[in-house]
Amino acid sequence: MSFLGATRQGATTPDLNSSAAGNTRESATGNGRDGHAPGVHDAPQHEGASCEQAYELARGLAANLRSVLLGAPGAISAAVVCALAGGHLLIEDVPGVGKTMLARGLASSLGCGLSRVQGHPDLLPSDVVGVSVYSQESGTWDLRPGPLLANVVLFDELNRTPPRTQSALLEAMEEGQTTIDGETYRLPVPHMVIATQNPVEELGTFPLVESQRDRFAIATSIGYPDAATEAKVALEQGGPGALADLEPVCGPDGWLDAQRATRSVFVDGRIAAFAVAICDATRRAPAVRLGASPRAAMWLLRSARAHALVSGRDFTTPGDVKAVAVASLAHRLVTDEGIEQAVDTVRITLDSVSAPRP
Asked: How confident is the model at residue 29 (pLDDT cuts 50, 70, 90)?
């Protein structure tokens, strides 16, 4: 029995696969040399929220995002699951469908100031992580932190940035720290990178390297709205007007508590083995040149935990793993024919790997 009273047979699970990538076109004082970035504090050590409280937070996040981004339930579910799982989110789609709006709405709802980076070919790594500047008055080197040192970082049009600058994110997204002029600084906790990118076939883009894509827990797309929804958007319903009226559903501490509650969701060993088997099958699939990594298996289970909690349960099922599999895995696969083939590969794999039975 779940904390919402849903049984294993009766629990509902919103499917993230329909919105996964490929379904469309297709200040504190001091200089930080003590190892802390300005304004960064260690994670609070108090007891986290219960699963019920985390569930209510998830409901509030989803309601806020639905008021801002109309007609995209799959992308909204993906964003909520990613926030609870503690991962980074990649939103890939054509221009003008609301990628940036979704990211801004999520940051506002989490009660965190949004730190924004606009990708362009002349962006330097120091523009992202920050730089130490010598002060003649004090005779010291003072850190000028970059936008990466914030709870929520929106990197808009990431693939318009050259690989040298894209690489500035690698350490931060994996290790929760960044190195500036030889000194290491811890990032705020929690920390989330939300990156948007245009399809790689567009002019002026630099495809993300495999290690970069593998650091995103979930990738999603938004797609074009139906005619009725697009008419509402044209009449300026939702969007910036709704964003200005958003009330946060939590703050950084509440968000961190919800992530801890998500990590407490039970995962049976057979469910873990099922997730690993799915990842292993992608490595042997035809036309796949690079399959899912062990990191992918870890994030698949973390996302499945979050999906179970959003569905009102404190235990995972094979259905949770299946529901997040495409969003968690497809963007990590390197195939002969791009993301569409990667999506198909994950779906075929889900049909071929036997799920554990109760």
From this structure: very low
